[in-house]
Design a protein that fits this description.
heterodimer; A: mainly beta; B: 114 residues; mainly beta
C-alpha cells in the first residue's frame, strides 16, 4: 500500500513567487492534515480536511496560504506570494475516520522543503 | 514552556545503552504519541498511549504517561546506531473542532555511536 506522498520534495523560489505543494494521502483516508516546521522551531499544525471540507484551518498563518482538497482526494497548499519566513518543511499527514478520528495513528509524508530566497 | 516540550534537546549515547527522552505538555489530552524522523525523511509513528493508560511497550520501546504531571517518557533499550534520529512527542487534545490534530514538541535529537 502506498504511503502519503508529497510533491515536490524540495522547492527553491524567490520572494514574491507562487509555489504549490501537493499531498496525496493514503487511499481511503478521510482526514488530511498539513503541518509546517520552520527552522529551529516545533512542528505546527496548519489545517485539517475531512474529505473535501476544511474542518479546522486555525493554524494557517495568513491569507497568503490557500489549501484545497477538491474531490476529497489529494490536497494542494499554495503560497502566494511567498515570503522569506515561509521557508521550512511542510508535512502532510492522513488518517482514517474511526469514530471521530481520536486515538488513531496519523501517517506522514516525507515533507516538502521550501526555501524562499 | 511549550506544549509537548521535550528534554533533553540532544542526547548522545553509545550503542547498547538505553536512551530516555521526556516530554511535558500543558492541556488535557486524549492521547500522546511519539514519532521519529530520520534525517531528511518523514515522520514515522512509533507508539500511541491513551490518557487512561500509564505504560505501553512496543519492541525495544517503553512509553510512560503521567497525566497528573502532564508528562511522558520514551525509553529505547539496547540502542542501535540505526536509532539515530529526531524524536518528537505529540499530543492529541480533547474535544475541539479538529479531532486528530497533533501538537508537537521541538524534539530530541538522539545520536547513537557505534
Amino acid at each position: 500500500e502506498a504511503g502519503v506522498t508529497q510533491f515536490p520534495s524540495h522547492s527553491v523560489i524567490e520572494k514574491g513567487q507562487t509555489v504549490t505543494l501537493r499531498c496525496d494521502p493514503i487511499s481511503g483516508h478521510d482526514n488530511l492534515y498539513w503541518y509546517r516546521r520552520v527552522m529551529g522551531k516545533e512542528i505546527k499544525f496548519l489545517l485539517h480536511f475531512v474529505k473535501e471540507s476544511k474542518q479546522d484551518e486555525s493554524g494557517m498563518p495568513n491569507n497568503r496560504f490557500l489549501a484545497e482538497r477538491t474531490g476529497g482526494t489529494y490536497s494542494t497548499l499554495k503560497v502566494q506570494p511567498a515570503e522569506l519566513e515561509d521557508s521550512g518543511v511542510y508535512f502532510c499527514a492522513s488518517s482514517q475516520i474511526l469514530g471521530q478520528a481520536m486515538n488513531t495513528e496519523a501517517f506522514f509524508g516525507q515533507g516538502t522543503r521550501l526555501t524562499v530566497v | 514552556s511549550q506544549q509537548g516540550e521535550e528534554d533533553p534537546q540532544a542526547l548522545s549515547i553509545q550503542e547498547g545503552e538505553n536512551a530516555t527522552m521526556n516530554c511535558s505538555y500543558k492541556t488535557s489530552i486524549n492521547n500522546l504519541q511519539w514519532y521519529r524522523q530520520n534525517s531528511g525523511r518523514g515522520l514515522v509513528h512509533l507508539i500511541l498511549i491513551r490518557s487512561n493508560e500509564r505504560e505501553k511497550h512496543s519492541g525495544r520501546l517503553r512509553v510512560t504517561l503521567d497525566t497528573s504531571k502532564k508528562s511522558s517518557s520514551l525509553l529505547i533499550t539496547a540502542s542501535r546506531a540505526a536509532d539515530t534520529a529526531s524524536y518528537f512527542c505529540a499530543t492529541q487534545g480533547r474535544g475541539g473542532t479538529s479531532y486528530g490534530k497533533l501538537t508537537f514538541g521541538q524534539g530530541t535529537i538522539l545520536t547513537v555511536h557505534p
